[in-house]
Amino acid sequence: MRTVRRLLYRDIVWSVVFVALAFLSLFFFIDFVDELENVGRNGYTLGQAALRGLLEQPGHFYELFPIAVLIGTIYSMARLAQSSEFTILRTGGLGPGRALRLLAALGLMFALVTFVVGDYLVPLTEQQAVALKAGQRGGLSLGTGGAWLKERRPGRASTPDAPAAGERSISVNVIATGGDGALLGVRIFEFDTDGRLRTRLEARSGQVLGDGHWRLREVQRTEWPTPETALAGLPLQQQSLPELAWPSTLDSTVVAAALLPAKTMSTLDLWRYTGHLAVQEQAVQSYQIQFWKKALYPLACLVMVALALPFAYLHARAGGVSYKVFGGIMLGISFVLLNNASGHLGLLRQWIPWMAAAAPSGLYLLISMGAFAWLVRYR
Prior knowledge:
By secondary structure, the protein is an alpha+beta fold. It has helices spanning 2-35, 46-82, 85-91, 96-137, 227-231, 252-259, 267-279, 285-296, 300-308, 321-349, 353-378; strands at residues 140-141, 147-153, 168-177, 183-191, 197-208, 213-223, 237-247. Helix content is 59%, strand content 16%. Strands 1, 2, 3, 4, 5, 6 and 7 form a seven-stranded antiparallel sheet that branches. The two termini are 24 Å apart.
């Protein structure tokens, strides 16, 4: 059994590595050519363009590795079937259940590799790629409306002798980020429990510190009086400050999650950010779907090897290896399309997040097991 395992694993692993390298080479070439138009702008060099392309490769590897597993495994199993090696293995005692267990163990190894790359390497390289892009463009634009964050905090008393006001809601808007990571165009709106605007801060730039404060620069502060104090004659107060230390529970992790793409976050970061959104009573379903997709995506490798196993039971004359590999490519593309569409459909139809994320893998696993059972029984 050890010899059979070594034979199958060596052949499949080399095929998967070859397919993965082919994919990465193609996508590096595409990314590098796409970056060439920026060379020479703002000191952007050819070396930085190549570095940007390299930094994108772990993300491509994470997205494409299950397809590489499918194509490589199909190629290996189809080649073994064509040369009658798999028939000899079956005659020697390699039953369907044992073959399924062998490939399932290999699929779990591939899933572990996918998880490690997606949770540790991809967030690091994607953040560096975003920082490189921001440095080349002098900042990172967050769209016309910018990015919004929200927090709640206990109210403060208007005077030392007065009781504290109720809970306050704070909305923070950031227009862009600078090349050095600074927040640009920061606007902060503070509302009381009745929904009345009490304080507005407008800062040219800001920086998230590690001690629970934001450092705001060139600040315009406006404070509105309550209806009671307005009746007493307290006017609108405006201040111009060169710098302000603004206390906030929004740390750098939460701010980065709100400003940067979701692919720059690990599974744990997504879990923490969804918890923050739930506490702040913000829309959370899209990030819940992203979390479950991130958590379940490595298991797609297990589904891919299960999809590839039926190809070993096809007769050698039932199409050459090239036709079977082409079929594997079509299966992989359809899986990626369905996996991407399920997230949007789940968000549109308000599906349970984990079901929306698990539906494509579950469907393809059922298809593979149905094809496997039919081939073993009737072929």
